[in-house]
Amino acid sequence: MGQLLFVVSREAIKRYQDFKRAFSDQESVEIILDRRVGQRRRAGAGPSEPGSDRRRADRRARPDVDSDLSSLGYSVVRLAKPARLLSSSNTHR
Known about the structure:
3-stranded mixed β-sheet; 3 helices; 18% strand; globular
């Protein structure tokens, strides 16, 4: 079974605390605050300009997550692998 990741809006600190408390005994659930601040690359920059983006699409784009965060204050993402393994897998290489 996959793991559930709750991404909570930074404006919903009370909800974040409630989720942390409610799911504290569930190893397959992780609660995090949304860390995104905004677009990281400049729009309209040419390919040779510093800070330009050569990618065709934003890899971070998750319209469903963005919509849930703005309307509900949180979003739930089902992960194939536990997030703790994903976040720690590159630390000791």
